[in-house]
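Before drawing any conclusions, I looked closely at one protein's amino acid sequence and its backbone structure tokens, quoted below without any editing.
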Amino acid sequence: MNEWTLQNLALLKLLTACAFAYLYGVGGMWKKWVRRYIAPLLLMSVSAYFGSWMGLLWASLVCASTHIGYGADTTGKKILKRAGVGLAMGISALPLAISSQMFGLYSAHWVLVLGANIYFGVVNPFKSARDEETLIGFFDVILPLFML
């Protein structure tokens, strides 16, 4: 592939992460099925476009990960629940890491999703929950998209 094609594919991955983040945020404020089904369906479509069977598996695992609850009353429980979601999102990208052999990027993905899910979800350093959820959704998928 020439460099223009590769650059356009990189843009498609960034736009996909943005669209996923938007749907993830919408699912947090309105209908959970948008986050749980529509957002992963977007990842499945892009994975199919890239011809990645492992990407389809990844999107299915992301779908399962979005079903994990993360609400709690105490800080300790919030940390544990957010860590559970981060772990699930981290594990979801394993098929992509195996198929692409990009284990360094996969390691960075782990740090990013655990950090974002725990710190942003528990501390909420943003002006609104909309910013928090949208950015968590973006971080959940941005690096795995570049393993496609």
